[in-house]
Amino acid sequence: MASPDDLKFQEFDEATDLLLADPGASTLSMSGSSRTAPAGATGDIKLDMSDDEGQEESSELLRGEKQTSGFWTFEYYQSFFNVDTMQVLDRVKGSVMPLPGRNFIKHTLQSSPDLYGPFWICVTLVFSLAISGNLSTFLNSLGSPQYHYRPQFHRVTIAAVVIFLYAWLVPLGVWGFLTWRQREERQQSGYSFLETVCVYGYSLFIYIPTSVLWILPFEWLRWLLILVAMVISGSVLVLTFWPVVRDDTKVTAFATVATIVILHALLSIGCKMYFFQTATRTPVPTLAPNHTAAIFTNKTH
Amino acid sequence: MAEVDELSKPMFAGLSDVSISGDIPVEGEINVPVGTPSHDDEYSTLDEPVKDTILRDLKAVGKKFVHVMYPKKSSTLLRDWDLWGPLLLCVTLALMLQGGSVDSKEDGGPQFAEVFVIIWFGSVIITLNSKLLGGTISFFQSLCVLGYCIMPLTVAMVVCRLVLLGGSGMVSFIVRLIVVTASFSWSTFASTAFLADSQPSNRKALVVYPVFLFYFVIGWMILTFSPSA
Q1: What is the ipTM for the molecules in this complex?
Q2: Which of chain A's residues have a Cβ under 8 Å away from the Cβ of B129?
């Protein structure tokens, strides 16, 4: 059966002919992504997304294309936590030092948003607001003899609801609005929902030291701190969203940016007024001329 | 070929009309243990007295408590996880945090459910966080470690309540502050000793920070516990 012809190197066409004849035959593909294919691979080479390899695979995939796993798999969410300590610190630094021309998303995030920063910054902000508010109430009423210290733990719940609603609903609204306008005007650039959430999350970082400094009982200092924090984090947001809306009509552009800034200001002023109520130096602190305190006294009696 | 036929004939000949009563002569030995008696090395806990079962679990829980008090890098805590210890500690802590300023529900300390939710939801979120960052520890092992490391804070709570029996002035506050700070750092250090090993080195701080925040919040709840006037 063996002839001298058979011992010659066969043409490559024979292999392709064989494959055409029987497409289901087992093949061994030597492309780069077949790292997981052993010698007996079936025709369909699947990328094995097991836990220990998932990290490498998903980070490689991200460079080429966005998430390929469905949103019900664990690896989908793992791709949002693909950050190192230094990266998180750089992003935080970028959020407190806005330089003109430096778009936070394009420059600092480099279009790979993460959810670690926004989530833990929100959690820290919730607790720092509640704890600092509690401390400031305590220090305010230190002089009066009938003041009995209360932990005011319900403030944690209220702070959590407010901060998390802000950090998720406002980016949803902004992203929805920008995407709708982008479709209307047929523009190219737009941010994904996660990038918007990421910007908003990191922009809340400045309020953590601000809330700690709000403990000091000087009213002028508190308003000054609000101003400084607003300028810094507001400019981060403006610098991020201005390039996207600038191609729109003037009115829409200004209205969008103004809304973003106003909502941000409302958050900080609202937090300051609710958690850090100034009590006048009267002997009974519960009768302080403040609406919310009056409501609480009405509820308890 | 003839021998094969001979051997195969009694096995396969007329197979369709053969009854399953075992008249087929089969070659070879069957080593299947028919009617399994309980072997000596089979671990059957059904026959032992209840006292032994309970004591075994209690000993395991106690051993883990000792591990937390002297945190050396051992993997016993990680391998045999159990959630009895964390449950016990959580319930004890939540019960002791009650009985605070009870005259006003609005401005008081955390309710029982709030403490429970913070401890368990906090542990679950920290575990998810460390797994999402690429940690190799399993879900329940991490819950087990975080729960057991609440023990120094529970001890601090007991001490604080004892100190508060003696009065609630400045001195007692300073004593409580020192005790709570020491136990909170002990908790963080103990749980980090177990958890940080499972992370790649460039993400250790990202995993340690939420643990720090978690024990800080629990410490804050303990420190601000004020007895009813």
Answers
A1: 0.73
A2: 81, 116, 120
